[in-house]
Amino acid sequence: MRVELVSVGTELLLGDIVNTNTAYLSKELAALGIGVYRHTTVGDNHDRLIDTLKTAFSENDTVIITGGLGPTDDDITKECAAEYFGRDFYFHEYSWVKILERIARSGMSTVTNNNKKQAMIPDGAIVLENFCGTAPGIILEEENKRIILMPGPPREMKDMFEKSVRPYLQKFSTKKFVSKYVRFYGIGESLLETKIKHILDNQDNPTLALYAKTGEVLLRITASADSIDECEKLIDAQLKEIEEIAGDKIYLVGGEDISSSQTELHNVVAGLLIENELTISIAESLTGGRLTSMLVDKSGISSSLLEGIVCYSNKSKVSALGVKEETLEKYGPVSEQTAKEMVQGIAKRLNSDIAVATTGIAGPNSDESGKPVGLVYIATYYKGDINVAEVEFVGNRELIRTRASVEALNEIRKIILKNT
C-alpha cells in the first residue's frame, strides 16, 4: 500500500492554522508499516483538488484526505472524491440522526439546510461515524484504489482514525506491527546518527527513524512479524545494541505517544525521585523557578520536593543560601564557586538527599565580568558529594533558561541512576 496524505483548506495555505494532522497520520501509518509517499496541501478549489487526486492516484493506491467535510459551500472534498470515482449521492438517515443529536448537545437551536449536506453520502461508500463532531468520514473503493475522507479538526480526525480507519487499514496486512520509542538526552541528532549509522544503513526489520526535538532526540523502532511476541523480540535485540552504544544518554524506552508530556524528561525525573523515595531541594538563579515548576508538573512530587527557591540577587544568595560575600566579589555570581556554595546552602536548609542549584547568564546582554551569554553552572549535591557542571547554550533568553532547566534535570537523573 502506498499512501498520499492530502490536507484540504485555504486556511492551511495562508498559514492561519498549523497542520498537525499530517504529522500524526504519518507517524501512525509508519507504525502500521504503511509508506507515505507524499504530503500535499490544497486550497478549497474544485479544479485543483481534482488535479491533486489525479496526480496522487498516478503514483499511489490510497489517498487519505483531511478537511473540507463541513456544511458550507467551500467544503468540497466529498464532492470531488465522488466525482473522481463517478458516484452519485444519497441521503444517509443514520448520519442525519447523529448530526441532529450532536447539534442538540452543543446547545445550538437552529438546524439549516446546510447541515443536511453532511448527511449526503456517495453511493457505495463506507460511512465512518464521527463521535466528536457532525461530519461523518467516508471510504470510497474502486478496484485497487481507495479514498479515505476524515474531518479536519484534529480531535475529530484522531478519534475517527483510532476507532475506524486504523482497523480498516490493518486488514490490508497479515503482519503484526509494534513500535517503541527511545528518548535520548545529552547527544545531538547528528552525533547519534553517526554512532548508529551502521544500523541505519542496514535496517530492514525492524526499521528505525530519528526525530529531533529541542534539547533531545527520539528514535522510533518498528518491527513487523506474524505475532506481537516476535515483534517484541526483534525490537529488544535491536534495542540492546543501541543501549550498548548510547548508554546513559537514553532516558526512556517505551512511551508510544512521543508527544505525551508523561514521556518527557521532567516527568521521568520526577518519577525516579518518587520511586526511589528521594528528597530534593532546588535553588535557582537564572532559571527563575522554571526547574521547580517542571518537577511540580508531576502528580505526587510533594513526597520528594522539599523546597524550591529563587535567589536571583546577590543579597538573596547570601541571606537565603549562605553564599559568602567574598566569593561573590572574587568570582562573581556566575561561577563554579558560587554555584557550589549555593547547592551547599540549599541542601543544608532541609537536609535533602539531593540538591541542585543553577546560575548563569541568560542574556541578551553579558554581565559586568564579560562572561559570555549562555554560560551556565549547574551544581548538584547527593548525600555530601558535590559536582559542578559548566555548560554553554546558544539561543535567546527564553531558550537558554529552558535548556539550563532541562540540563539540570538530566544531572539529577544521572545522580539517581548512579546511586540507586
What does the secondary structure layout of this molecule look like, with pairings?
Elements: E1 2-8, H1 10-13, H2 21-31, E2 35-42, H3 46-57, E3 62-66, H4 77-84, E4 89-91, H5 93-106, H6 113-117, E5 120-122, E6 126-128, E7 137-142, E8 145-150, H7 154-170, E9 176-185, H8 189-195, H9 197-201, E10 207-213, E11 216-225, H10 228-246, E12 250-254, H11 265-275, E13 280-284, H12 290-296, E14 305-310, H13 314-321, H14 325-331, H15 336-350, E15 354-360, E16 375-382, E17 385-392, H16 397-419
Parallel strand pairs: 1-2, 1-3, 3-8, 13-14, 13-15
Antiparallel strand pairs: 4-5, 6-7, 7-8, 9-11, 9-12, 10-11, 15-16, 16-17
Helix pairs in contact: 2-7, 3-4, 11-16
Structure description:
This protein has 420 residues and is α/β, with parallel strands linked by helices. It has 3 domains: 2-170, 3-Layer(aba) Sandwich (Molybdenum Cofactor Biosythetic Enzyme, Chain A); 176-260, 2-Layer Sandwich (Alpha-Beta Plaits), CATH 3.30.70.2860; 264-419, CinA-like (Maf protein). Helix content is 41%, strand content 25%. It has 16 helices and 17 strands. The strands form 4 sheets. A 6-stranded mixed sheet has the order 2-1-3-8-7-6, sandwiched between helices. Strands 14-13-15-16-17 form a 5-stranded mixed sheet, sandwiched between helices. It has a 4-stranded antiparallel sheet with strand order 10-11-9-12. Helix 2 (21-31) runs parallel beside helix 7 (154-170). Belongs to the CinA family. InterPro entries: CinA, CinA-like_C, CinA_C, CinA_KH, Competence-induced_CinA, MoaB/Mog-like_dom_sf, MoaB/Mog_dom. It comes from Gemella sanguinis. Residues 4-171 form the MoaB/Mog domain. This is Putative competence-damage inducible protein.
